[in-house]
């Protein structure tokens, strides 16, 4: 019995027949001057649009960098003003605490004077 890998199986198969490839007809395309000029205008417009896009993209990047620099400067100014304001608030709080301590001492003196008189 012949198997797929046995020599009898290989010899029993018919030899492949070489087929002729079908001929492909090649036609030349004629392009008249008006079609060629429309194509040239299209290519020129594409090149102009690409150049404008590239220029605008660079301009946008430049503006973005300027805005980033301004934002950084404004952040620094805000941080400086915030720290100065916090320092002033701390000084005012300290003064309020000092006044409250004096008032507490004054109330204690008044209360002690009232106790002495009674």
Structure commentary:
There is one protein chain. The protein is an all-alpha fold and 118 residues long. The protein contains two helices and no strands. The longest helix has 85 residues, at 33-117.
Top keywords for this entry?
rod-shaped, 2 helices, 118 residues, single chain, mainly alpha
Chain-wise SSE layout:
Blueprint: H1 7-12, H2 33-117
Briefly, what is this?
With 118 residues, this protein is mainly α.
List low-pLDDT spans. Answer: none
Look at the helices and sheets and give the structural class. mainly alpha
- The beta-strand count equals 0
- Main beta sheet strand tally, sense and closure: none
Percentage of residues assigned to helices: over 70%
Distance between the termini: 136 Å
Strand content: under 5%
| H/E element order | HH
Q: Taking Cα atoms only, what radius of gyration do you get, to the nearest Å?
A: 48 Å
What overall form do the CA principal axes indicate?
A: rod-shaped
Tally of helical runs: 2
Kindly state the mean pLDDT as a whole number? 86
